[in-house]
Amino acid sequence: MTTQINQNVYTNINSVLIWQGGQLRYEHYFNGFGRDSLHDTRSSFKSITSLLMGIAIDQGLVRDVYQKVYSFFPEYQDSLQMDKRKKGMTIKNLLEMQSGYDCDEWDDVKDCESEMIKSEDWVKFSLSLPMKNDPGKVWAYTSCNPMVISGVIAKASGVSIMDFAKKFLFDPLGITGYTWTLDPAGHGMTAGSFYIRPLDMLKIGELVLDKGVWNGKRIVSEKWLEESTRTTIPIPDFSYVRFSRNTEAIPQPSFYGYYWYSETVKTKKFQEDLLFASGNGGQYIMIIKNLGMVIVFTQSNYNHWQAKRAFDLLIKYILPAFEPKN
């Protein structure tokens, strides 16, 4: 695998890390990146936002995922009057990409994120979006949903999302080198554009693999991880394996949970259930519970199908090396 990447058979791959059986089994960097290089996580950071919401609920700052979103923002009552569908929107709707907002960035149908980035206040912009569907009815991917989640956590905790994440997630995991992207109003971006070391992305995967415990300390509840990674929503006509153009696997459908994805990797020789965070360009935190494994990919294949070739590498090289030998 290393040779194939170095020879540019697989292009624009910046790092591959494999943790298995309690050990770092593989750690390689490419294209000038190194161990301490910060990499843009893109939308794989959404899965970290999911963890932060779980911590807020664990602490009792937020009651549960069924709490109404706009109850945290009394200053937006005018928006509720303009479209009463917003009144019923829950935190769960945001986490499952079923908010009902008139946005759908999955196939570039309606890119609200680009417009959001131009605004002065990304939380305000997102809360003020027009509605298209009743909440909870239609899966429509938009980065505005996790931006509202950041606002909910900030309102409920009384501190910025940056301070909340530092105190309750990053510091406990020993994650100290990272860079937030901020809007002009000072809100931290929780949908992507967060820069972190691949080794620290690996820690996020290890935390989930170990059911919310890090070095013997509970960081997020096992109950939240079970709920948030249940991935019951089918993504219409989509398979990461199929788009990787791997010829050995039988493509299976992808599913969505609370900013987490799942897909079964199935070949004639093996089958494994994969839970993962995914970001544009090929930023992946992959968790295979059955093998006690976490795999991190960082890439620069932005807006290109080649980002999915990480799944080709997984199927051709990584899984065969770790599958139990009969």
Strand order of the largest sheet: 2-1-13-12-11-10-9-8
Percent of residues in helices: 25-40%
Radius of gyration of CA atoms, rounded to a whole number: 19 Å
Instruction: Report the end-to-end length measured between terminal Cα atoms.
Output: 23 Å
CATH class categorisation of the largest domain: Alpha Beta
List the domain count as a whole number: 2
Query: Would you tell me the structural class of the helices and strands?
Result: alpha+beta
The unreliable regions are none
Total number of helical segments? Answer: 12
**Biggest pleated sheet:** 8 strands, antiparallel
Q: Shape from CA axes?
A: globular
**CATH fold descriptor of the largest domain:** Beta-lactamase
Hey, roughly how much beta strand do the residues contain? 15-25%
Would you summarize the structure shown here?
The protein contains twelve helices and 13 strands.
